[in-house]
Structure formats: structure tokens, C-alpha cells
Amino acid sequence: MDDLATRLAAVDARIADAARASGRDPGEITRIVVTKFHPASLVADLYRLGVRDVGENRQQELTAKTEELAGLADLRWHFIGQAQTKKARAIRAAASLVHSVDRPRLADALDRVGEDGDVLEVLLQVNLTDDPGRGGVEPAELEALAEHVAAGCPTLRVRGVMAVAPLDAPAAPAFARLAECSRRLRSVVPDAEWISAGMTADFPEAIAAGATHLRIGSAITGERPLHI
Ligand SMILES: *Cc1c(COP(=O)(O)O)cnc(C)c1O
User: Fold this and answer.
1) Index of the ligand 1 atom closest to the CA of residue 221
2) CB 124 within 8 A of CB 163
3) Which of 9, 42, 105, 148 is the 20 to 30 A CA-CA neighbour of 85?
């Protein structure tokens, strides 16, 4: 718990430094702690340290942890992983927010399981790599996906873009492309201003490129166990 508190404080200090270096207000940046593969007890420890935003990338793990920690009512669960359409109902039931909407069929599946009047905030994930097998919509198709969701999915609200930087290339140019995607998205959905980018290895670069939501795992949680 002490180590966790120390790592959390160190990351928050680095976030504040990177924000100030870019002339940004650290208060406008949401730090999401990615807790995948770690037990629910770690999420409870983070909660005691004041963390209210956590990220999970697998539906079954998300569902199990949200059930176990249902008492922590103001904890926000961000779903950040690849989503299968058949898991849409379970994801929607457990997640406060979904960062990884990357195709019309997934948007439709998430929309269909929504109740009338219930709105799920989503980000559109963009693929910044040359590998079409990675998650995310091709940048050239972002506007079409945004139009599809805005016009056809009344229970979803598009808040912005999300991406993972390519592993084998510098992060800064990739995040600059993401910022351009964000501008193009806002030509379709003017208030979709969020940019979810930046992980342990590259969050300072993401902040410099305008990220509003950081998804930071191992720098805070320590090494991920292989199994939970
Ligand atoms: C695991 C994961 C992260 C966090 O990765 P770290 O390198 O541990 O900070 C961020 N985003 C996504 C989509 C992830 O799957």
C-alpha cells in the first residue's frame, strides 16, 4: 500500500510537470489507473488512495471486479479493450464509459442494449499503426463512424478519440496524428473534445499532444501478474 501510494504520487507529479511544461492545467487531465490482471483488492487500495477512475480491457474481468466492488459506488470503470459485439450487453452493464468503439456494428450492439433515456459515453478508437489487425478505426474512416454513431445510436454519446501509440515508432508523431483525428471528429461532433492517449511509456508525450485522459497501468500498479 505504501509503495502503491508512492508510485501514484510520483506519476501524478510527472503528469503535473508535463502539463505545466505544455502550458496546460493539470486539473483538466483525467488519470485512469489501468488495473487489468490485478486483483480487485488492488482496486480497493487505489480507491482508498483517492483514485476514482480505473481501466479494464477484458469484459469478464471487468464484470467480476465491478460485482466484487459494487459498494464503491462513485468508482468509474473505463472499458479500454477490444470488444466483441456479443459482449456488448455485459460491457454496457459494467462499464461507466467505453473507450474502444471502433466499428459501426459494435456501436449498434452497445446502443441496442441501452435503456431509453440511458446514455453511455464512448470514445472512438483510432488505429495509429499500419497493422489493420490492431484495434481501432482507420483514420480515414473516423468521420463516417462518428456520423453513424451520432445519427444512428441515440443511447451513445461520442466524447472523443482514443488510441494506443505504435510499439515500434516514436509516440509524439503518432499522438500528433491523433490530435488531427480529434479535430476532424469535432467537425462532426463539435463537443467531442476528449483525447484518451498515453500509457506508462509515453504519457508525457500524450500530454504535450493534448491528451485529456491518460490510461496508466504498470507505472502505478507495478508489474502485472500473468494470471489473476
Ligand atoms: C494495458 C493498457 C494500458 C496501460 O498500459 P501500461 O503500459 O501498463 O501503462 C493502457 N491502454 C490500454 C488500451 C491497455 O490495454
Assistant:
1) 8
2) no
3) 42
Res 76 pLDDT > 70: yes
Identify any residues that bridge with 152 across adjacent strands, giving them in sequence order: none
What residues contact 85, with CB distance under 8 A and at least 6 apart?
105, 106, 108, 109
Assess whether pLDDT exceeds 60 at residue 228: no
Contact (CB, 8 A) for 31 and 12: yes
Classify domain 2-221 by CATH number: 3.20.20.10
Residue 5 has pLDDT above 60, yes or no: yes
Beta carbons within 10 angstroms of residue 142's beta carbon = 23
Q: Residues with Cβ within 6 A of ligand 1?
A: 34, 36, 57, 80-81, 164, 199-201, 215-219
CA distance 142 to 161: 9
